[in-house]
Design brief:
It is a single chain. The protein has 190 residues and is mostly helical. Helices cover 77% and strands 0% of the residues. It is built from 7 helices and no strands. It has helices spanning 3-18, 32-37, 42-66, 76-100, 107-135, 139-163, 168-188. Helix 1 crosses helix 5 and helix 3 (42-66) crosses helix 5. It is globular, with a radius of gyration of 18 Å.
Length: 190
């Protein structure tokens, strides 16, 4: 199976997982090879991140100008660097958490699904940013952003609960750690 075929099957699996299909894992390559191949999602994620970075920059410029400050520079290289750092650090943090909670046996399937789920969740997350870039207004994208964020939180929690085969509380610990890491890297990238 080519990587593209594996990715298409994984997207089907992501959709099935979101719909709570108990056999969704059939669409994922849950081997060690599948673990390493799942990191190929970095390519579409980097593409999907571009409008998010542009929208965030435009909002920063507008806010700076409104405050009478100089407009910040667009630092795409820095933004992409921290996105890649997140791709490298989260698997390590998740491995530590899995070990801490006695879930190491479920770590590889969790990371495979987590990685592949980045594509549909990024596609959803980019919608408010694309609206902002097309409309110039932040009102509708801002209103849409909160429900989208809620859905993304739920999906991340659900993947942890389902793929790690754990309790809601442990899945919440994974979600909160992921959020803290993402937020920390976002702050560093500014």
């Amino acid at each position: 199976m080519t990587l593209v075929q594996e990715g298409i099957a994984a997207m089907r699996g992501c959709w099935r997982l979101i719909r709570r299909d108990p056999r969704a894992d059939e669409d994922f390559n849950l081997t060690i090879d599948g673990f390493w191949r799942s990191f190929a999602v970095v390519v579409p994620v980097l593409v999907l991140a571009y409008p998010m970075f542009l929208s965030g920059h435009e909002q920063s410029v507008a806010q700076s100008l409104a405050n009478g400050e100089a407009a910040p520079e667009l630092r795409l290289g820095v933004s992409y660097f921290y996105l890649l750092v997140g791709f490298a650090v989260w698997p390590l943090a998740a491995a530590l958490l899995a070990r801490l909670f006695g879930l190491s046996q479920n770590y590889v399937p969790y990371m495979i699904v987590y990685n592949w789920m980045n594509v549909p969740t990024m596609a959803l997350a980019v919608i408010p940013n694309l609206l902002h870039l097309m409309m110039g207004s932040t009102l509708l994208p801002g209103l849409l952003g909160m429900p989208v964020f809620g859905v993304l939180l739920y999906v991340s929690w659900y993947i942890a609960r389902t793929c790690l085969r754990t309790t809601a509380a442990v899945a919440l610990a994974f979600l909160l750690t992921d959020l803290a890491l993402t937020f920390g890297l976002s702050v560093l990238s500014r």
